[in-house]
Amino acid sequence: MTYEQHPFRWTPGAEQRHATLAPLRDHGAEVETLCGARIVVDRTELAWLRLTCEPCNVAAHEIAGVPMPGDGPEIVDGQIAGAR
Ligand SMILES: [Zn+2]
């Protein structure tokens, strides 16, 4: 069995670590994220230490078919139940 990479990748930008389905982009490029935001990719070293964007994290777990650890929010039709 071969390892299949998930279709999303983590990319830092807009003060958080977001996940995206877009191909890997260079620093300064604009990219659409799983949470629906358009961010400017930040490939500086410290950017990788920023907090994970929660909606992106939930969406990434859903794509990977892995439940959120602990009492994560419930996902209904691709949206976080009870959010906003
Ligand atoms: Zn995000």
- Topology as H/E string? EEEEHEE
**Helical residues, percent:** 10-25%
Bound molecules: zinc ion
Number of strands: 6
What structural class do you assign from the helix and strand content? alpha+beta
- The separation of the N and C termini measures 41 Å
Instruction: Kindly report the spatial arrangement of strands forming the biggest sheet.
Output: 1-2
What is the total number of structural domains?
Answer: 1
Characterise this structure.
Strands 1-2 form a two-stranded antiparallel sheet. Strands 3-4 form a two-stranded antiparallel ribbon. Strand 1 (9-13) and strand 2 form a beta hairpin. The termini are far apart. The chain has one helix spanning 54-64, and strands at residues 9-13, 16-20, 30-32, 38-40, 75-76, 79-80. The model has no long low-confidence stretch (mean pLDDT 87). The chain contains one helix and six strands, in the order E-E-E-E-H-E-E. It has one domain (9-80). Bound molecules: zinc ion (ZN).
SSE topology sketch:
Blueprint: E1 9-13, E2 16-20, E3 30-32, E4 38-40, H1 54-64, E5 75-76, E6 79-80
Antiparallel strand pairs: 1-2, 3-4, 5-6
Question: What is the compact description of this entry?
Answer:
The protein has 84 residues and is α+β, with helices and mostly antiparallel strands. 13% of the residues lie in helices and 24% in strands. Strand 5 and strand 6 form a beta hairpin.
Features:
single chain, 84 residues, alpha+beta, two-stranded antiparallel sheet, 1 helix, 24% strand, globular, binds zinc ion
